[in-house]
């Protein structure tokens, strides 16, 4: 563990930052007289972005000399256990970071303060609305990533196949994938994991719903769900590799794409930097849909503890951390996820990078997002759906049987 010290408006403030993979932060520094103290707990700056967060804190305290921010950074693996204990014990920080899935739980259980008079217009609308519940705003978006369709432009050109466009449907994608698959050279047209994360997305692309409105029952075993699952499973062995080919093993998909043996790949924008040295031309486009567009969106948000005695100052801090020019500049310079701001002119340094050329697709995808379904027993639900879909992909069950069994399991989890 290490302590970083910096001067803020003539006062030295101690920020306790957790070293890579180590325990939680040291105890708080004493608050200077006349200042409001905001304790802030986070996970996303751990292991590489501690200095970036420090720079933002410095700028905030310079602009708000009446507020001192005390940071506690906790590794992601330990974060939610520590947070749950702190909230239950009444010792949670004034403000803290939540991913979307955990936000849903904390917003429902009364742990979060409602935010007042936030300028929601500074954020991308879909990101801002993600952190509301029952018509009230309980958080602001902090950062996001999403999934797009990567494609190997060189393979498309060599095969004489027209490149993907934003108007493509599933039918267009699979027609191209069929032409681009060459099993003799072990070149595949498409790769989309047969998993929970991909299923809830293609279900949305087909107009289906994973859960009912009050999240008391699973509803994905529907005609739309069966068609969506068949779309995923039907690719296996035809236009995309099987488990026997190595599909599903660590880094299989990224290695396949980088080797020039994969024409299309459904994956996240976090892979941009990993493909910087690819020896072929590639680009991205918003993923095809069937009856509608739906792009997977993953977001982290910032919230205020309902029990905080410094809620006003805490809200001021989280809105600065989420939307200020200083934060935007720092995030873009250090590739620390993408800021959620609406003003794309401030994202020019990101959009102007040469690869991929169509970075605008990242923001177009935010216009039709689908967020992960959330229940209390989240991981068990995800595992159950993936397990059943995997069985169908391997031919051990029909798609219809796998989906029915998956829904029975999820409904069982909802009732426990």
TrEMBL record:
GO terms for biological process: maltodextrin transmembrane transport; maltose transport. GO terms for cellular component: ATP-binding cassette (ABC) transporter complex, substrate-binding subunit-containing. The keyword Mitochondrion does not apply. PROSITE patterns: PROKAR_LIPOPROTEIN (PS51257). GO terms for molecular function: maltose binding. Keywords: Signal, Sugar transport, Transport. InterPro entries: SBP. CDD domains: PBP2_TMBP_like. The keyword Signal applies. Residues 1-21 form the signal peptide. It holds the Pfam family SBP_bac_8. PANTHER family: MALTOSE-BINDING PERIPLASMIC PROTEIN, MALTOSE_MALTODEXTRIN-BINDING PERIPLASMIC PROTEIN. Belongs to the bacterial solute-binding protein 1 family. This is Multiple sugar transport system substrate-binding protein. The lineage of its organism: Bacteria, Bacillati, Actinomycetota, Actinomycetes, Propionibacteriales.
